[in-house]
Write a structure and sequence with these properties.
Helix 3 links the parallel strand 2 and strand 3. The strands form 2 sheets. A 7-stranded mixed β-sheet has the order 4-3-2-5-6-9-7, sandwiched between helices. The chain has a two-stranded antiparallel ribbon with strand order 1-8. Helix content is about 40%, strand content about 20%. It contains 12 helices and 9 strands. It is of the alpha/beta class and about 290 residues long. Helix 6 runs parallel beside helix 8 and helix 9 crosses helix 12. Bound molecules: S-adenosylmethionine. S-adenosylmethionine binds next to strand 1, helix 3 and strand 3. This is Ribosomal RNA small subunit methyltransferase A. Keywords: Cytoplasm, Methyltransferase, RNA-binding, rRNA processing, S-adenosyl-L-methionine, Transferase. It catalyses: adenosine(1518)/adenosine(1519) in 16S rRNA + 4 S-adenosyl-L-methionine = N(6)-dimethyladenosine(1518)/N(6)-dimethyladenosine(1519) in 16S rRNA + 4 S-adenosyl-L-homocysteine + 4 H(+).
Length: about 290
Amino acid sequence: DSLKLTSPGVINKIVREYNFRFSKGLGQNFLADENILNKIINSAMLVPGDRVLEIGAGIGTLTREISSRAEKVVAVEIDKDLIPILEENLKGRENIQIINGDILKLNLRELEKIYFGGKPFKVIANLPYYITTPIIMTLLEEGLNLQLMVFTLQKEVAERLTASPGTKAYGALTVAVNYYCHCEIISTVSRNVFFPKPGVDSAIIRLKMRQTPPVEVTDPELFFDIIKTVFKYRRKTLLNALSKDSSIIGKKNRLESFLLSTGINPARRGETLSIEEFARISNGIKGCQL
Ligand code: SAM
């Protein structure tokens, strides 16, 4: 328990001892910097009663710190070769549950019920970069009792999550995530603090779940469907992009007058629309029998 898991020497020693081979495909870049470790943990604002899900535990660097400050940690790790290392590094800590599994395949509703008794929980993860977006969207769409999430992820993705309408980084992910939570970049993180060093820089981001959505949406499925269509054809005008939506095909004239009636210029590019404007369109489009 006294080993400093952020020390490159210690990481090397563990790797040699267990004959562990890093998998690039699984996004295995372990945190090797004490300051960044503290920054990640502090961003989660942990208090003693907290329940935490950690995704991609690696050799347990974050897990150990979380376990010292929270009531319960469930640490999911896909690579079975890391499980004996995790068991050794986290030995004697009674509040940690290690699960060998794929976060995208686990039944998270079950997991929440079994380990957290259905109570609110936090998520902390130094994410495997090849599946950043699916992990975030899965967590948000499962209807879990989430409180707050702290992720270390690609800087470019962090910029997408906090982008403003009309910018290049603004997209379907921006609107979807901001519908569910308030996003805040805590700090950028150099690629040099990971071992082995990844090809991109990172950022720590905090997502606080909203009590109520920032806009009222009468049909969330339609709302997200429209957002997807609009960004799929982001270079087209709103009118042309929306005409591609399966529910609208063949009704372009009526669509145009509908957009005008909501006060949104059909010639605008869809990627300039705010979340509020997406809500206005999806709420109105049904009522006008398009
Ligand atoms: N938390 C450790 C740290 O900060 O040093 C490791 C972070 S590393 C960037 C990402 C971890 O996620 C790796 O240990 C990798 O094996 C694991 N991982 C990759 N895909 C996963 C998946 N689908 N489900 C669960 N864990 C996964």
